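Handoff note, outgoing to incoming analyst
You'll be picking up this chain. Sequence as last confirmed:
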Amino acid sequence: MLQSGDMTGALLAAFMVRHLIPDGDPERQLGFSPSWLYAQLGHIAQKAFPAVADGCSVVAPFDAILAELRQRTQNGS
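Most recent structure output, in case you need it:
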């Protein structure tokens, strides 16, 4: 998706991977490094969610955004 220019799709895929495999891919089943994906898309995540996405690691924006989404869905907002 990233290579074809589908930034929205790539960002959504990164969120899905982070949500389903929060500790990376220890068994190497994905065929790629999730950290590479997060590093490529972190700046897009921060642009899309400027008030939420912040941090110093490559996964920090995704973790912050997922935590916010989790909170919003649990609170019914």
